[in-house]
Amino acid sequence: MVAYKAKGISLKTAPFAEADKLVTIFTREHGKIRAIAKGARRVPSRFGGRVEPFTYAEYYIAKGRSLDIVSQCQVVESFLALREKADTLYAGFYIIKLVNSGTAEGQHYPELFDLTLEFLLKLKAGEDGRQTAKGFEREFVKLEGIFHEGIDPHHSLGQHLERDLSSW
After folding, report:
1. Distance in Å from the first CA to the final CA of the chain
2. Domain boundary among 77, 97, 127
3. What's the pTM value of the predicted model, to 2 decimals?
4. Total domains in the fold of the chain
C-alpha cells in the first residue's frame, strides 16, 4: 500500500462499519480527503478525539482501493477553546461546514486551507464568533470569485452552494 502524510483539519466524522469512523479531512497538499479511522469508535481507541471536527493534525494515511485509511495522527492543535462558548462553537461549525460544502474531494485549494486555519485561530484567540463567521464568509466569496460589492456574502454563498444557509 502506498502511504502519505498530510497536515489537515478534520471537517466531520460519521460512523462507519461496527467500530470505525469515516473522517473528512481538509488538507493543504491534497484538498479534501475522506478516510477510514479503524477502531475510532471503540472506547480504548488509539485515535480517541484526534479525528473529531476542528482537530488540526498530521495524518498518516494509506491509500485504499475505494477509501483511504488513517493509520496514525498527531495533533497539532485541537481547538478546545472553540467548544467553551456557544458563539465560537457555532461559528467554528459554520466555517467547517462551508468548507466541506464548498469543496470537492481531492480539490487542491491551499488558499482556502490557509484561510480556514487563520479564522479558526481567530476564534481560538477569543474573537467574536458572529463577526469572525461573517469575515470568513466575505473572504470565502472573494476566493471563489463571487464577491459583489453591496451584496451580503451570505446570499452569494447560498446561490453558489445551491443551499439555503439560513438553517445553518
Report:
1. 39
2. 77
3. 0.88
4. 2
